[in-house]
Write a structure and sequence with these properties.
A hairpin with a 5-residue loop joins strand 6 and strand 7. This protein has 21 helices and 18 strands. The chain is an alpha/beta fold. The N terminus is likely disordered. The protein has a five-stranded parallel β-sheet with strand order 11-14-17-10-18. The protein folds into three domains: about 170 residues, Ribosomal Protein S5, domain 2; about 240 residues, P-loop containing nucleotide triphosphate hydrolases (Rossmann fold, 3-Layer(aba) Sandwich), CATH 3.40.50.300; about 70 residues, Helicase, Ruva Protein, domain 3 (Orthogonal Bundle), CATH 1.10.8. Helix 7 runs parallel beside helix 17, helix 19 runs parallel beside helix 21 and helix 20 crosses helix 21.
């Protein structure tokens, strides 16, 4: 309660990108003709809360004040979006109208109201709860469906309710709510029966994918239809190590802000596979609202982004991959400002060798002309290809390979080697704040990943012969470092360099 008996102040929270911030909901009941105004840059959903709050208060048996009601959402220079503020507006009016309770200064309230007074979940709760704790608040009140997500924030007590009047009774001391306890994360699940042992043959492609997973490298698979490119890509999450708690929190914040997750932490690494008709805004993020929603690049953060039929994507759309592949984040700029989302993912691409798909196949005749094949390949720009570390051909299988049984390694066997190699890399780069070889800065790679004398001569020869760029050189060293880690070798040798160069030459 403020200086005036008809004024109340209640803390709430907003979200910008995946960062939360504190919002103060000031409610004033004044004299004059009955009116209900909300100020402080509210969007349409916030303005519509007037009718939801009015109906919910009457449904809960409190009535509704016949006076001039002004609600201010401070700070007034930040745009407020969504139904998050229904609950604090409800409590603010109730506090000023009945003088039944005073909301604690160290508590925040978020939630959407149904017309009957029920609380509905909102998006971005984990980001808001973390922001509340960082701002020094001690309690947060959320809808019941958001309880598990909010409880993942450290340093704040979470209360959950299914109705708004339950929170009002808690604040008045008539019926207390129990704090929400954090639940244990579920064990790693089986990926719906998907396993690398299902893949017949393709030993070179499996080896390349294992290297890519161990180092977090980007990979491009090229081969005719039906050779198993998509099948291989969909099994990559089964060989990746579990996310750390910090990674899981960041991934959960993104998915929650996009309205794609309401629960505890996201524990499985994302696997995003957008169709080639996706728009630039759909891939990078954007839309008519502000701040823009996360796109597929941000949604794949911490996991895999699989682009099947790569040349069929719009070239302008593909070019927005450049920034996140270099910096690990995507920045969306509009007239209203700019917002950045984390976007550090493993890019996995698949393509046919030509438009008809049969170029180079021993049993199918290609119907494309050389000009058509060149046109098809040129849809992918050189700078984008230069950012893909590993290029591998996935040839068509022979009948004997398809019918052969019992030769494929399981995902768990491959994953054990991947985890061991990542553990070596994480220990090596701990002081640099990165966990895998693909994320190491170029200056560090040049200083620390020096091959032996034979390896140095080999990479120098390839640099001159293939006309490699400085970026290509760095990526060859990163891949060679990963191959050495898989071999348990501290020194990068000519053997490791040769295999890394092989994956680079395949793309040429």
């Amino acid at each position: 309660m403020g200086e005036c008996p008809l004024l109340s102040r209640i803390k709430s929270l907003g979200i910008f990108g995946i960062s939360g911030y504190v919002v103060t909901v000031e409610t004033y009941l004044g004299q004059g003709l009955p009116a209900f105004d909300i100020v402080g840059l509210p969007d349409a959903a916030v303005r519509e809360s007037r009718e939801r709050v009015r109906a919910a208060m009457r449904s809960c048996g409190y009535g509704f004040p016949v006076s001039r009601i002004t609600v201010n959402l401070a700070p007034a220079d930040l745009r407020k979006e969504g139904p998050t503020y229904d609950l604090p507006i409800f409590l603010g009016i109730l506090s000023a109208f009945t003088d039944d309770f005073v909301a604690p200064d160290d508590a925040a309230f978020i939630g959407e109201l149904a017309l009957g007074g029920e609380l509905r979940p909102v998006s971005g709760v984990l980001s808001m709860a973390i922001a509340a704790a960082e701002a020094g608040l001690k309690q947060i009140f959320v809808p019941y469906e958001n309880a598990a997500e909010a409880a993942e924030a450290d340093g704040i007590v979470v209360y959950a309710a299914s109705r708004a009047d339950e929170i009002a009774e808690h604040l008045s001391g008539r019926r207390m709510l129990e704090p929400v306890t954090r639940s244990e994360p579920p064990e790693r699940s089986v990926f719906s029966g998907v396993d690398f042992s299902d893949v017949k043959g393709q030993a070179p492609a499996k080896r390349a994918i294992e290297i890519a997973a161990a180092g977090g490298h980007n990979i491009l698979m090229c081969g005719p239809p039906g050779s198993g490119k998509s099948m291989l890509a969909k099994r990559i999450p089964t060989i990746l190590p579990e996310m750390s708690r910090a990674e899981a929190i960041e991934v959960t914040k993104i998915h929650s802000a996009a309205g794609m997750h309401r629960g505890g932490l996201v524990t499985e690494r994302p696997f995003r596979s957008p169709h080639h008709t996706i728009s630039t805004a759909g891939l990078a993020g954007g839309g008519s609202r502000w701040p823009p929603r996360p796109g597929e690049l941000a949604m794949a953060h911490g996991g895999v982004l699989f682009l099947d039929e790569l040349p069929e994507f719009n070239r302008v759309t593909l070019e927005c991959l450049r920034q996140p592949l270099e910096n690990g984040e995507i920045t969306i700029t509009r007239v209203s400002g700019s917002v950045s989302y984390p976007a550090r993912f493993m890019l996995v691409c698949a393509m046919n060798p030509c438009r008809c798909g049969w170029y180079g196949h021993p049993k199918h005749e290609c119907t494309c002309t050389e000009a058509q094949r060149e046109s098809y390949r040129s849809r992918i720009s050189g700078p984008l290809l230069d950012r893909i570390d590993i290029h591998i051909e996935v040839p068509a299988l022979e009948y004997e390979e398809l019918t052969r049984r019992g030769e494929g390694e399981s995902s768990e066997e491959i994953r054990a080697r991947v985890k061991r190699a990542r553990g070596i890399a994480e220990e090596r780069w701990r002081s640099y704040g990165v966990t895998c070889n693909a994320d190491v800065p170029s200056s560090v790679i040049a200083e620390t990943c020096v091959p032996d004398e034979a390896g140095g001569k080999l990479v120098k020869s390839a640099f001159d012969r293939l006309g490699l760029t400085a970026r290509s050189y760095d990526r060859i060293l990163r891949v060679a470092r990963t191959i050495a880690d898989l071999d348990g070798s501290e020194q990068i040798t000519a053997v490791h360099i040769a295999e890394a160069l092989q994956y680079r030459e395949s793309g040429r």
